[in-house]
Amino acid sequence: FVIVQSGTTISMIVQKTYGSLTPLAVDLVKEFNPTVQNLDQIHAGEKIWLPPLTRETLLRKDADGSSRLIVGSFGSLLEAEQFQQKVKDRGFTVKVSPQKISARISLYRVEIEGLQELAAIDRAWDLVDIRGVSAEP
After folding, report:
1. pLDDT tens column, 29-59
2. Burial of 40 (0-12, 13-18, 19+ CB in 10 A)
3. Angstrom distance (rounded) from CA 90 to CA 57
4. What is the C-alpha separation between 26 and 61, in angstroms, rounded?
5. For residues 102 and 39, is the Cβ–Cβ distance under 8 A?
């Protein structure tokens, strides 16, 4: 985590931590900091958790025992849907869900659902869009 310094923005923190300002990084920072209601309004002294962009962070277990993998976040629904279609074309079940980042910004998260075995998770991992440049499925 980092402690927010006066005059610092989330954009600055994400850029410094992850090397670039990617929608996926911003999406996860918001998710891992649920007490921060609006990433546009952070305050000096606040602690911000900065999750690593790793397979362990992006892979989630569902109640039915399957897994889902976040493969990207996008600034527009159109971009998310285009990426979703490319991933679907590879045989995966994919959903897009809006993520409220601030009062004025939403991102669109793309997740592969229903991953049952390690081999499927490995194949899905190759599609992850960590740097904000879509992997070409």
Report:
1. 999 999 888 888 899 999 999 999 899 999 9
2. middle
3. 23
4. 22
5. yes
Q: What is the pLDDT of residue 32?
A: 95
**Closest to 48 (Cα-Cα) out of 23, 72, 14, 21:** 14
Query: Residues, the chain, total?
Result: 137
Buried b (16+ CB within 10 A) or exposed e, 112-129: beebeeeebbeebbebbb
pTM, full prediction: 0.88
Distances 90 to 33, 44, 94 between C-alpha atoms, Å: 33, 45, 10
Count of beta carbons in the 10 Å neighbourhood of residue 37: 12
Residue 84 to residues 39, 70, 73, 118, 130: CA-CA distances in angstroms? 26, 11, 11, 21, 15
Residue 89's SS3 state is coil
Decide: 2 and 27 in contact? Cβ < 8 Å. no
16 is written with which tokens?
A: 């410094």
